[in-house]
Amino acid sequence: MHEPVLLQEVIAAINPTSGERYLDTTAGYGGHAREILAHTNNYLECVLVDRDKAAIDHLETEFANKGVKIVRKDFYSAAEQFVNSGEKFDLILADLGVSSLHLDMASRGFSFAASGPLDMRMDQRQELTAETVVNEWDEKDLQHILSVYGEEPKARRIAKAIVANRPIKTTSELANIVARTTGRWSGKHPATRTFQAIRIAVNDELRLLERVMPLWVALLRPGGRLGIISFHSLEDRLVKRFFLELGGNRFDATLAIVTKQPVVATTQEIAINPRARSAKLRVAVKK
Known about the structure:
Layout: H1 7-14, E1 22-24, H2 31-40, E2 47-50, H3 53-62, E3 69-72, H4 75-84, E4 89-95, H5 100-103, H6 130-136, H7 139-148, H8 155-164, H9 171-182, H10 192-203, H11 205-219, E5 220-230, H12 233-246, E6 255-257, H13 267-272, E7 280-286
Parallel strand pairs: 1-2, 1-4, 2-3, 4-5
Antiparallel strand pairs: 5-7, 6-7
């Protein structure tokens, strides 16, 4: 079963109360939604969004006959639709990143833990896959995403090796090429940053996050809370900057920042759910 990260911390920070309307923009397997809806008891006005078919199928089964609205879209397209139709919410949550179930599923190609196809699509309907990025993008573009999205210090060397070893068909092939290229290593696998960079590029994660945050604020009622859970420094940096731009003590601030520092997982949670070790929660309230 998928373990939702920072569950109790989310509940404490966004403080869901009876009757409030909830939007989960990355509902996944419903872990956060189950707990939040237990507090709001407002199933009929709840909206759960995800772009992954497996997640949507699970949500439709779990929340069948409860009146919850389930939408298969990326969070930006969904937010744009809701803004255009005049929707308003009291609670909005975004749990960014990849579900641990998807990381464990070799056929989805997100991880090098088991060999699988170079896919990495969160939405299986889209055309761009990791295989296209790895085998068709030029060396300069590969170096760029590895450096910017992966913060990989050996980006140039890895990009060169990828191009030299084409065609590459599986996650294990790619991981082995990166490992051979970077030399000796200890601790985190040397392909971790490369896989992160390619996944971000395939799913357009950072651009969509930057574009969607103003829409989420527009969707909040006064007093509404926005919670965002990020899993790497690039995401957290965008969220922190956005909250600071709209928050603070200025007379024209539209947000009040609830979490002065990001909330992180306890050692107990990390022991049970290692995915939580990099999670950071930031929450703000609309004035």
